[in-house]
Amino acid sequence: METTMTTDVETFRTEVRSFLSGALTDDLKLAAQQGFGISRDAGAKWHNLLFQQGWVAPNWPVEHGGTGWNDTQKHVFSEELALAGAPMLMPFGLGMVGPVIYSFGTDEQKARHLPGILDGSVWWCQGYSEPGSGSDLASLKTSAVRDGDDYVVNGQKIWTTNAHKADWIFALVRTDTECKPQQGISFLLIDMHSPGIEVRPIVSIDGLHHLNEVYFTDVRVPAGNRIGDENKGWTYAKYLLGHERTGIAGVASSRRAVDALRNFSRTATNSSGATLANDAGFTNRLNATSVKLEALAQTEARMLAALEAGGNPGDISSMLKIIGTEVQQSLETLRVEAVTYYALPFELAQIRGESNEPAPGPEFAVTAVSDYNFGRAASIYGGSNEIQRNVIAKAVLGL
To answer: What's the domain range around 36?
Structure first.
């Protein structure tokens, strides 16, 4: 039985690799380096290729366009995408609001929104964080006051990834100020073209524009755009955050980074002229990070096995988030140190793949500082690591 299962997995892995070898063109690999900063054209191209293959929404139920894959197949698919250097699929539709809509939305909401999310023709962004409400999301102040058949929304969201590219935003809003904070929040779907919405760019420390501020001034939103019951939005928000943290360990991406560092270290030299592969300090830190990564992979494998057996690891996933982001940041630090002074030219045209001139140093160095800079936020977004440690202490260790 075990041999048969292993054979089936490897057959599936071969199928995925075969597809990627043909579909993942050089321009898409280049665009992938921009992460969330990928252009909508390039992102839509990749999304459409997976949609046509029927592989764009592995985690969705089959009746809504999912693949019907088991958890092992989903894991293999995600791993192969990362190892191949494929562009990320924007998670806000497929991984976040889509599952909320098909789980809690009305039939009308499902019919209106799910097809556009699935085929990639409609892009979404997430309206959660506010200037005074990050990890303490329940303190949000953006208000939605009922006026006839509409809500009138006023307030501000911040760190809104790809708001400038999005057609819709799903937002948490305050609909009751007299109860406990978590009990007065509702979940609204808002058309980004509505009068009264203003998007202001935030150019982040990586030099790219993917973050924004979003202002709402007397924005009228039909009450029919509310998901579920009024003042129950916190329930749907927690459900969504569980989907947001799916795959956040980033094992495959980090393994790809380890391999790239090892290959680069064979020719790159330190200040003494020795190759980095023969630099004990560098190799010891790379090896230590690699061991930590493999331990993370084993933890992820145990959780996968628990899922396959019908279990629900739940809050233990916080471990994956913490260690995964620590490994990512360690590898990004090693990469900057490895490329040394070639990290200094911070040329946005090179980072965006828009320059006709060759990079001043090795290709490995072009996005080193950009990735390092934005990677500092990895231990914050998706639920800060400090919050995740509190979750482990309370929900896992019972402290």
So the answer is: 2-89
